[in-house]
Amino acid sequence: MKVVCVGGGPAGLYLAILLKLQDPAHDVTVHERNPEGRTYGWGVTYWRGLLDRLRAHDPETAAAIEEHSVRWSEGVAHVRDLTTRHHGDEGFGIGRHRLLDLLAGRARALGVRLEYESEVTHPPAGADLVVAADGVHSALRSGAAHDFGTRVTSGRNPYVWLGTTKVFDAFTFAFTETEHGWIWAYGYGYSGDRSTCVVECSPKTLTGLGLDRADQGEGLALLEKLFAGVLEGHPLTARPGASWQTFRTLTNRTWHHGNLVLLGDAAHTTHYSIGAGTTLALEDAMCLADALRAHAGLPQALAAYERRRRAALLSAQSAARYSAQWYENLPRYIGLPPHRMFALLGQRHSPLLPYVPPQLYYGLDQAAGRLEALRRLKRWLGPRAARALHARSTAHGD
User: What's the predicted TM-score (pTM) here?
Assistant: First the structure.
């Protein structure tokens, strides 16, 4: 099979690796519009479950990624001058640049052709399969937007993606109160000397602080002052041209048209606050590779891929939607004692939380942790409520 993959991000590179592992005779080319080594972003996060799935598909790639990752098992929240720390699941961070280097090296070793500074805006002729893995602004998808039924909705809160030399030893949340409202940051390490720091606030706070009008240097200086307690003298850094933006949630009515199939952010996006974008993209690649192996016909393989991934994504999409809403409604929770606020921060994916008074929800959640019957009820009720609320929002076009 001749496969052309457009987009040299994690999804496109990992799909190329898996296809060559399945059959070395596959002719696989990855086109990336940027020069080799140039990428956006800082670090990405993932959890043990992804590492296990990577290991099942390609132990060599999984081992390399784990070796170059940092890990944490705690979360810490700073609210004003109070701090609370909780033990949690083991998480991992790896620099996006490092991740792409590892995947590109593995792909080359398996015989994949990597074409950098190669922009493809229309499906090339002669390929059996064309994979649009070129991100949320996918040129291939945009050229057939009507066929895919692309829909984009923008979130409310502005955010900016930054880096810092402060190495956080836990997944860190910092909430700072200003005269114009709250502003907060998520921070996590991704190497021995760097961390990612995402800053978010309401539109009112952004304009009140003047961050929408400040140049990049002025904006970074103000943010360094606002988060001085957690940065401990370390600077914030930004990519050239980085600016405040609102998150774009992208969906498509269908993920394939003819021999063109969407992968990763070209097919779907989930809010950054659940830290799942790279994981979902890599899982797309695994599912598509599995479907191509299991089905002799391309239409059947692409239909199976889309069906399975849509079903698998429902939980993550629901979690992302409620996570974004939790932050958009931060005043509802921020007045709680820090340990309670942090507990509900960990429960922000719940479809029940927006409809239950926070103090009551906290009490019920604590009781559920002690009583098996309540745990079973919560596990039973949560997904059903999520499906019902999702169906209602879909019916109303929300």
Answer: 0.91
